Each structure stands twice: as C-alpha cells, then as structure tokens.
C-alpha cells in the first residue's frame, strides 16, 4: 500500500469576496498532489464528520451547539475570524474526522497525512485564530477513548504557538505538547506547553533545523509516545504573510524529512496535518503545503512502510 492521505471534496467552503484568507487551498492541494503524481486517487481516503460525543471529549456542548447552529455571538465569531456558513460547519467537522482517520491509518501503516487540520488555537469553550474545533486534541482523546493509543506526542511546528492544545492538555501527563514557534507572533498571550521553544524573528533554514535537531530525538526517546501528531504548518516560510521567520521551500522540505525520518526510524507512527499557511500567492502556498506529502511519500518508500 502507498502512503495513506486523507481528503474530503467539501473542504472548499465559499467565503465572501475579498476575505483575507480564502480556503480554496484545500481543494487545490488535492489537485496538485494528483497532477504532480505525488499521489494517485487510490491513496486518498474520505472521512466522515465525527459524532458529537467525540467533539465533546474536548469542547463544551454549549459551544459546539452554538457554532454548529450559527448562534455564536458576534464577539465569539470575530475571535474565530471566519464568516459562519453551513458549508464551513461541514468542512470544520469533516476536517476533525479526517485527523482522527489520519491517526488510525498512521497506527496501522506507520505514517499518514491529512490535507487539512492543525486547528491548534481552539479552546474548549471558544474558537480563535481561524480555528473552530481543535482537531489535534479531539483526535488524541478519541484514540485514547477507543483504546488505540495512550501516550501521545503533539509536535507543533506551526509558526504560532499551539495555545489551545497546550491549555487543553496542561494537566495531562498522557499527552505531551511541544511547540516551536516565533516568539513575537500570535497569540499575544501564550499558554504553557510541556515544552515551548520560542524562536527569534527572521530565523533561517540552518538555524531552524539545528534547533529542531537539538530537541526532537531526546523528546521521542524520553516520552516514547504511541503516536506522534505532527502539525506541519508552513507559515515559518519567508513568504508567509503572518510568519516572521525565514524558511525557504528547501528548508521546509528538510524539516519534513527530518521530522518524519527521525520518528519513523525510531518506530514511532506519525499522523501529519498541514497546519497554517497564509500568502497572496495561492499556488506558491499550495506547493508549500504539498511538501509535507512529497516528503512523506519519500519516507514511506524509504522505510518500506
């Protein structure tokens, strides 16, 4: 079997014209992976929206109901930053189901990737920073609930701290949260991850990869997780509108190879999500997100998974 990839055709939600952060990158990523022959149609798996009781493992019932029914107050809606629509509700819930399915396939095959996910700013009772439901936290709780995994490492390399994830698991020793992020970036008020590595503005490829190498092997050997969730945000890229770091396409590729090879070689299965990325050049942004899947396909072949 080839690398399992999770995709849902309804990821593209219509947003008002002129909205700053359009969502068509999800559909375009699927198209690029096919057109560049990174993947074949047979590698893609279509998830289902999760049952509400799965979402309630992390989020409060009142918040879930208000969001799904479109009755959040205006302040809560502005904090999320995305205009509400039934299509966006469907996309949000399906992306959560996609991350759960990614994790299940990673446990079975050693490595799997989502073409969405990484909504790490969502807290139990509210959304924030373009994140509605925290797919990484929900998937972690679902796996534990189903008895598929107990010790979980959330490796968050999005340029922004995974504050919602850190808060959700702040008193839980079964889930280790690691966030390597730009120190002067959103959110202004940081939460406390199990391990935070704040980075200075403008950090380039070499310094970034050296910093990651300083922590990752010891993190794996010390915690010994049953599964690694990898948030492969591409907003550390020099061309990102919200990033403030200076990684290149090559740096992103080296990062993905470093993370995936280190985990897989040590026997730890990885469920990867694409995380954040914001740019005016949509094609360039989609390519950067595709680097995760290109690297994962290479690692999957190298290690005969």
Q: What percentage of the residues does DSSP assign to strands (E)?
A: 5-15%
* Main structural class: alpha/beta
Overall number of domains? 1
Radius of gyration over C-alpha positions, nearest whole angstrom: 17 Å
Number of strands: 8
Specify the overall morphology.
Answer: globular
Q: Give the overall pLDDT as a whole number.
A: 93
Strand order of the largest sheet: 2-1-3-8-7-4-5-6
Low-pLDDT stretches: 10-22
Largest sheet: 8 strands, parallel
The CATH class, by name, is Alpha Beta
**Distance linking N and C termini:** 8 Å
Give the number of helices.
10
Order of helices and strands: EHEHHHHEHEHEEHEHEH
The CATH H-level superfamily is Histone deacetylase domain
What's the helical proportion of residues? Answer: 40-55%
CATH topology: Arginase, Chain A
Known CATH architecture: 3-Layer(aba) Sandwich
Keywords: Hydrolase
Pfam family, one: Hist_deacetyl
GO biological process, one term: epigenetic regulation of gene expression
Protein name: Histone deacetylase
Give an account of the 3D structure.
The protein is of the alpha/beta class and 305 residues long. The chain has a single domain, classed as Histone deacetylase domain (Arginase, Chain A). 43% of the residues lie in helices and 11% in strands. The chain is built from 10 helices and 8 strands. It has helices at residues 25-35, 52-55, 61-69, 74-80, 86-109, 135-146, 163-168, 205-223, 249-265, 282-302; strands spanning 5-6, 44-45, 111-114, 152-156, 175-182, 195-199, 227-231, 270-273. Helix 1 (25-35) links the parallel strand 1 and strand 2.
């Amino acid at each position: 079997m080839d690398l399992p990839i999770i995709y849902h055709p309804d990821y593209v939600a219509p947003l008002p014209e002129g909205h700053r952060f359009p969502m068509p990158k999800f559909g375009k990523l699927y198209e690029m992976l096919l057109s560049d022959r990174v993947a074949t149609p047979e590698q893609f798996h279509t998830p289902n929206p999760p049952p509400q009781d799965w979402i309630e493992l992390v989020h409060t019932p009142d918040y879930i109901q208000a969001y799904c029914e479109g009755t959040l107050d205006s302040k809560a809606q502005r904090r999320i930053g995305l205009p509400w629509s039934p299509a966006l509700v469907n996309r949000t819930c399906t992306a959560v189901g996609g991350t759960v399915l990614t994790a299940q396939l990673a446990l079975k095959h050693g490595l799997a990737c989502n073409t969405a996910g990484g909504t790490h700013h969502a807290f139990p009772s509210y959304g924030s920073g373009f994140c509605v439901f925290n797919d990484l936290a929900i998937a972690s709780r679902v796996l534990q609930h189903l008895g598929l995994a107990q010790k979980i490492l959330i490796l968050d390399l999005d340029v922004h701290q995974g504050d919602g994830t850190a808060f959700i698991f702040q008193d839980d020793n079964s889930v280790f949260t690691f966030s390597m992020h730009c120190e002067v970036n959103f959110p202004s008020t940081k939460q406390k991850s199990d391990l935070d590595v704040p980075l200075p503005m403008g950090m380039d490829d070499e310094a970034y990869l050296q910093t990651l190498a300083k922590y990752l092997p010891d993190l794996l050997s010390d915690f010994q997780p049953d599964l690694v969730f990898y948030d492969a945000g591409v907003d550390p890229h020099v061309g990102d509108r919200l990033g403030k770091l200076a990684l290149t396409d090559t740096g992103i590729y080296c990062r993905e190879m470093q993370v995936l090879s280190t985990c897989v070689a040590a026997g730890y299965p990885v469920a990867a999500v694409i995380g954040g990325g914001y740019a005016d050049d949509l094609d360039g942004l989609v390519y950067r997100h595709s680097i995760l899947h290109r690297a994962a396909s290479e690692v999957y072949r190298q290690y005969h998974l």
